[in-house]
Design goal:
Layout (H helix, E strand, L loop, with lengths): L1 E6 L2 E6 H75 L7 H4 L10 H7 L10 H20 L11 E3 L2 E4 L6 E4 L2 E4 L5 E3 L4 E9 L5 E7 L4 E11 L6 E2 L4 E5 L9 E8 L2 E3 L2 H5 L7 H5 L5 H7 L5 H6 L2 H10 L1
Antiparallel strand pairs: 1-2, 3-6, 4-5, 6-13, 7-12, 8-9, 8-11, 9-10, 10-12, 10-13, 13-14
């Protein structure tokens, strides 16, 4: 078959084989041009999608952390705002220290006498400037330690299913020492850091049987463990603050049901978490007498927990610290 093309310049004849070759060459050229044009566009689009996905994940994490902090501190901050305004009117010398008073709870009333009650001290009949300054320094020191040493609840759970101490393992059916406390919690319940810390470990820990595990390293040699998590929201070496969302409870590892396994350790020694859960501003001295595996006396020498005059009015603190050493 021959195709003839006639123009003003004359006629040309093409065979079917020639047209086929021209068509194939044209197709190959168009395909190559399309490949080299489309490939960079696809790469750029893929990079843009990955960047958008990363930004979305970061925004979701920031939003969850903000919600967790608001749930823990909203009521305390509302009460604190009203109280600090009253304190600034009554005691001008406390104006620069208001930000250090911290998480005062609902027992704080509208005067410095309420601050004494919150600190667990006898209420003074006459409030002097010297006494007010001592109370201010004591409150600041206590808040410092409450941020540095684990305290409070790591999860909003109404039920404890296993406490610290010897027991029969529910899965292995062997007697062992349970090094923490188990909180019953549905999968996905938020878990919060109980003190300022740096993340020592965050990920799946097969050897311990805790599944997805977070280990936080706090000041003064304390550590906290959060086991059987469903999701981890922090990374190794990351700094976290007290009350920050760090993960969600789950049922990973060796476990019979969804719960949070929580431990408090000092160096390599597991401690009963109960005294740390109950430790607060108003019950500050109790920890030193209940937890006897920590050498509190040496900490007292480095960081006096109370001013001399306040200690004289509450001498039981020194006795509790000494008895804890014994």
């Amino acid at each position: 078959m021959v195709v003839t093309l006639t123009t003003v310049h004359g006629s040309r004849q093409y065979s079917l084989n020639q047209l086929t070759r021209y068509g194939i060459v044209l197709f190959v050229v168009l395909a190559a041009v399309s490949f080299f044009v489309a490939t960079p566009l696809l790469w750029k689009t893929s990079d843009d999608l990955e960047e958008l996905a990363s930004d979305h994940e970061q925004l979701a994490q920031d939003y969850e952390m903000m919600l967790g902090s608001q749930q823990l501190y909203k009521s305390e901050m509302d009460e604190l705002s009203t109280t600090l305004n009253t304190l600034m009117d009554e005691k001008a010398q406390l104006e620069e220290e208001n930000s250090r008073i911290g998480a005062l709870n609902q027992s704080l009333d509208q005067s410095l006498s309420g601050l004494e009650s919150l600190l667990g001290l006898p209420v003074s009949e006459n409030m002097t400037e010297e006494r007010a300054e001592e109370l201010k320094v004591m409150a600041s020191k206590r808040l410092y330690f409450l941020h540095m040493i684990p305290n409070g609840m790591p999860i909003l759970s109404p039920r404890v299913t296993a406490r610290f101490g010897p027991r029969i393992h529910p899965v292995l059916k062997k007697r062992h020492i349970h090094h923490g406390i188990d909180f019953k919690a549905s999968i996905g319940t938020p878990v919060y850091a109980t003190a300022d810390a740096v993340v020592e470990y965050a990920g799946y820990h097969k050897q311990s049987g805790y599944g997805k595990l977070i280990i936080l390293l706090h000041n003064f040699g304390f550590k906290t463990y959060y086991g059987h998590l469903n999701a981890v929201k922090v990374k190794n070496r990351e700094f976290v603050r007290k009350g920050q969302l760090i993960g969600y409870s789950g049922n990973t590892g060796i476990s019979t049901g969804p719960h949070l396994h929580y431990e408090v350790r000092h160096l390599f020694t597991p401690l009963d978490p109960d005294p740390f859960l109950a430790w607060s501003m108003s019950d500050f001295d109790s920890l030193f007498s209940k937890v006897k595996d920590v050498k509190w006396a040496s900490l007292q020498e480095m960081y006096p927990l109370n001013q001399s005059r306040v200690v004289q009015e509450q001498p039981s603190l020194q006795k509790e610290i000494s008895s804890a050493e014994k």
